[in-house]
Amino acid sequence: MAARRGDTLLFPTPPVVAAHAAIGGKKEGEGPLAACFDELSADNFFGQSNWEAAEKEMALRAARLCLKKAETTPDNVSLALAGDLQAQCTASSYALRELGIPFAGLFGACSTMAEALGLGAALCSAGMADGLLAMTSSHFCAAERQFRTPLSYGAVRTPTAQWTATAAGACLLRPAGEGVQLCAATFGRVQDYKIKDINNMGAAMAPAAAATLLRYLKDTGSAPADFDRIYTGDLGHVGSQLLRDLLTAEGLLLKNHVDCGCILYDAAEQTVKSGGSGPGCCASVLCGHILPRLEKGTQKRVLFIATGALMSQTTFLQKESIPAIAHLVELRSPQQKEENG
């Protein structure tokens, strides 16, 4: 059963990530983390006729592969927690209609994966789920059409703009067993620093990442140096520098910070401007890069902080500012458990 300390949920008997899968598109296959993906598509259609259907197919493949790795079936999964950027989370719901798993839809924009992991860990810890699927996805072309401009318009991207990843990630959580441990979760509070530029998501989200991290550190009595890495997703290069500036003002030097949006692509070669974004960005980096490093013991203890910009097409057109949120989970290597006896 979870214990609460301040705003942070602690799991004395940590649920585990029993299996995980990462699927990516063409651009992700050209980036520095290409080898981390379980499957990459030669194009961004995934055998479908439109971008939205392609994202659904990508999410479905990630879920099926995750279950295959866990040597289980949808019948053995108590609940799926999932969401995406498409209106009313259609990529997730259309994917899960194929699997027949009980489904609770989430919306946290790019923070959805950490939100799903935190809620999933709480449910597993409370004995409410024997197997729980946490997943999310995003698609560059679908997101551009919904939030910015049609691809055929040919709009010039600003230096602060980020590239929405065409990617999906899925994790199967279990209350106990072998796998990376989910030891704690801190859910974010909505932050709004009055940023209105839809091409500068990093500036809108950095304060949310800082606020959640500071609350977690206060609740647990931890320091940044206690972790091998502190991962965010996805602040990009601009937002990452702003996060470090905000924490420096609070007296914290963040020397072990890595942003998923900064490592998924090669910014110098792939014209992604400030880096990657989208729910699928940090989800695929988590499933393809972070979790394997924890499983191997390359890293023993990390924080995964996913950030989301909570605007809509309507609020943007109404010239509203962009509120943001960040959710945090603490992950530990199964090898650390063995070392501690």
Automatic annotation (TrEMBL):
Single GO molecular function: acyltransferase activity
Entry coiled-coil feature ranges: none
InterPro entries in the record: SpoVAD, SpoVAD_sf, Thiolase-like
Name listed for the protein in its UniProt record: Stage V sporulation protein AD
